[in-house]
Amino acid sequence: MVSIAYNGMTLGTICSSHLSGWICTAYSLGGWPVSFYTYGVFGFLWLLIWATLIYETPSTDPLITKNELKYFNNTEQKANVKYTSVPWKDIFTSPAVWAVAIGYTAYDFGWYLAITEFPIFLSSILGYDARKAGFLTSVPSLVRLPVVLMSAFCADSVIRRDILSILNTRKLFVVIDLGVSSVCFIVLSQVGESVVASMLLIILIFCAFGFNPASLSTNALDLSPKYSGIIIGVVIMVSSTTGFVGPFILGELITHNNTFGQWSILFMITSAVLFFGMVFFLIFGDAEEQGWSPATDPGEMKVLLNKIESSDSAISE
Q1: Which of 167, 170, 203 is nearest to 188 (CA)?
Q2: What is 171-214 written as a DSSP string?
Q3: Theoretical Cys-Cys bridge with 128: which of 49, 132, 214, 255, CB 3.0 to 4.6 Å?
């Protein structure tokens, strides 16, 4: 489910890359400022659709089928959960949470740089116009689509078959996510203005980032099913600041000297950030439910799993 949701973001990147390139060269429409208005309108329309179709509970959704409603009712856990205050101190002092935060911030630094600065790199260094740069930028995202789904399937299969533990699976995929992309950025800083080599490396970077949903993005759920939403919310809030840190660094580097050598410095900085995030997670990462997270009673979990199996059988019949 996480990988499917993330692919929605990837589809948005593909569409916006094409559309932005076309808008920026359509001077009769007003040029690049129109792209901001366009996405603003799309965002507002999406909000209207979301507000119309989202309901508080499954039972209040008029579009839900009888089988779906039966499934939700049968699999709902009826345990007496004691709602306590959020253990903020334990969360913020947990090495495992910090491992997710540092790793995800490193990932976001590379990801935001890739989707916002690669089009500029293609146009200003490799010589493509805005429309062609937009098209070329969408290619790596298109290749990333099946990688996201494949990585999620592989992670689930490895864990389900006891080939690797959950922790080792997360760490392996973090090595691919952050480690492989780090190496690619280093190589990208050394290939010069070769179009073919640069595009291949950019595609590899996007493919490596496709392993994120099966590693860092789901690790918060491993640490605390109850507080995973809070953890990942805080993590993304902090990591999103890299969306302007990367462009700021690039601006400082190329404002008066827009050369491949200056871009190489940015690529090496990005590689170092990704590598640091990987090493930090490998040292402090965890996949066990933390002591401050209220654990589910084994008996209640067994009853819940039996309900799920019964519901699946009923629906299939």
Answers
A1: 203
A2: HHHHIIIIIIHHHHHHHHTTSTT-HHHHHHHHHHHHHHHTTGGG
A3: 132
Cβ count within 10 A of residue 205: 28
* pTM confidence score: 0.76
Q: In the structure encoding, which two tokens stand for residue 205, read together?
A: 């970077």
Distance between CA 102 and CA 302 in Å, rounded? 35
Instruction: Give dist(CA 163, CA 301) in Å, integer.
Output: 24
Say how far apart CA 204 and CA 229 lie, in whole Å: 30
Tens digits of pLDDT across the chain (317 residues):
565 666 666 667 667 766 776 677 666 677 777 878 888 888 899 899 888 888 877 778 888 888 877 777 766 544 444 556 889 999 999 999 999 999 999 999 999 998 888 888 888 888 877 677 777 777 888 888 888 888 888 998 999 999 999 999 999 999 999 999 999 999 999 998 888 899 999 999 999 999 998 889 889 989 998 898 899 999 999 898 998 888 889 889 988 888 999 999 999 999 999 999 999 999 999 999 998 887 654 444 444 445 544 544 544 45
